[in-house]
């Protein structure tokens, strides 16, 4: 979860966030806009054809200092994982995955996978 305060009146669509008001952004909502991604927007799909533009690493002066490292790790580690385990798959049905009840992040209790090589 991200909390910021408007330093001036900010027009957003047909509304205005008044100066001094808090804006709370939930990371759990990122990439789930059905208007942008269709009726299955709430499902994780790495092959999703629509662009997933988000601010999960923050923006501007609030950008996460580890963002570049995280992107590099994902770009190296994930291809290596899939090369080593080409049939990597969930060990349970997707419906059996459960998120932890935390509003500040979007974490699973566990992610059981099969590593058949």
TrEMBL record:
Keywords: Heme, Iron, Metal-binding, Monooxygenase, Oxidoreductase. SUPFAM superfamilies: Cytochrome P450. Transmembrane segments: none annotated. GO terms for molecular function: heme binding; iron ion binding; monooxygenase activity; oxidoreductase activity, acting on paired donors, with incorporation or reduction of molecular oxygen. Gene3D superfamilies: Cytochrome P450 (1.10.630.10). Signal peptide: none annotated. InterPro entries: Cyt_P450, Cyt_P450_B, Cyt_P450_CS, Cyt_P450_sf. Belongs to the cytochrome P450 family. PANTHER family: CYTOCHROME P450 YJIB-RELATED, P450, PUTATIVE (EUROFUNG)-RELATED. This is Cytochrome.
């Amino acid at each position: 979860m991200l909390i910021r305060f408007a330093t001036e009146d900010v027009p957003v669509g047909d509304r205005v966030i008044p100066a001094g008001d808090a804006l709370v952004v939930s990371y759990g909502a990122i990439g789930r806009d059905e208007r942008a991604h269709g009726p299955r927007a709430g499902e994780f799909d790495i092959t999703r054809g629509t662009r997933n533009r988000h601010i999960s690493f923050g923006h501007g002066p609030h950008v996460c200092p580890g963002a570049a490292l995280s992107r590099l790790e994902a770009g190296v580690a994930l291809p290596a994982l899939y090369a080593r385990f080409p049939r990597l798959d969930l060990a349970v049905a997707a419906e059996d995955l459960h998120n932890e009840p935390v509003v500040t992040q979007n974490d699973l209790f566990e992610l059981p996978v099969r590593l058949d090589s």
